[in-house]
Amino acid sequence: MQELHDAFGRRIDYLRISVTDRCNLRCAYCVPPAGVAWKPRSEILSFEEIEQVVRSAVALGMGKVRLTGGEPLVRSDLPHLVRAIARIPGIKEVSLTTNGMLLERLAMPLAEAGLARVNVSFDTLDPVKFHRLTRFGEIERVWRGIEAAERAGLTPIKLNTVVVRGVNDTELCDLARLTLSQAWHVRFIELMPVGNGGDWGEEFPPLGERYVSVQEMLARLAPLGLAPAAATAGNGPARTFRIPGAPGTVGFISPLGEHFCATCNRLRLTADGRLRPCLLLDREVPVREALRLGADITPLIEQAVALKPSGHGLSASSTAAGAGFPQNRVMCQIGG
Ligand code: SAM
């Protein structure tokens, strides 16, 4: 099997694919209050074009694929894409990141199509806050989606929680305690200033006050006596802990404070067909036109890998100013 390495010797074997820039929620940390203009349908890659990119990537040695968005499940025929990708020889795993709103109905068809597991964004246990933070979300619906994913065997289930001061920073212990009764992996993520540096509305704190570091999260979780846990397969950059005796784990993802660029193994494909070598840098390689001309995109994938920087070079202290962060896209146009 071929292996793909970047200029810094990192093995690149993971492709995150945004299948749409559209989303059925408007999470305050992800989408500006006014929303973003959706790309015309003609600019969005078809499933056949996405499959073509995956075939080329797999041939180069990229065996792991994650589907994201926007909200990937707004493309309700997503199981067709999952099936097509899962069948490609050399594919090791297809996973999904979703807000869970449409998961209840789609969990089983996705599992049958070959999806291995899901990560669900889940930021608060409070239904009122949930609705406020996501602007349209219904916690009960997401909860039913998570249960359906469990029944369908899309496990281990990971819950992604972006921690925002004044919103959910006082709930970390309650969220972590979910791992006492469920074999879930709750992962707390530091807020990244990507396209969300403006005012989120009067019920949210101003830019300079929203960020909570992993160190502060750990301090808030001290009453639970978290103990370091062996890394969970597929837990990527998360530092993993466990409440003693719990079946699930508690992870921390610190893209800024303790960034994990040295072990970065990924490339991103945006819904409009651009390969993005680094989440936090506005540097992209377009592949859509080449795909539509029937050209071999292998050299473009290699070019994108060659453009991967050693690190994003941004720090938590730049957060308040929003300086140096991506300007060309908001997070829902990248896929997280
Ligand atoms: N709609 C799907 C969802 O909600 O999971 C997939 C797309 S969403 C952009 C992917 C991930 O990015 C989610 O887990 C979300 O919490 C995370 N995310 C979005 N904006 C973020 C931000 N500003 N900082 C940190 N994580 C963010």
Notes on the protein architecture:
The two termini are 28 Å apart. The radius of gyration is 19 Å and the shape is globular. The protein is built from eleven helices and twelve strands. The relative contact order is 0.17. α3 runs parallel beside α5. By secondary structure, the protein is of the alpha/beta class. The chain has a twelve-stranded mixed β-sheet. The chain has a single domain (14-333), classed as Aldolase class I (TIM Barrel). It has helices at residues 47-60, 78-86, 103-113, 127-134, 139-151, 172-176, 178-181, 207-210, 214-220, 288-292, 298-306, and strands at 14-18, 64-68, 93-98, 117-121, 158-163, 185-190, 227-228, 239-242, 249-253, 266-269, 274-276, 285-286. It binds S-adenosylmethionine (SAM). S-adenosylmethionine (SAM) binds at residues 23, 29-30, 68-69, 71, 97-99, 121, 160, 162, 189, 191-192, 194, 196, 331-332, 335-336.
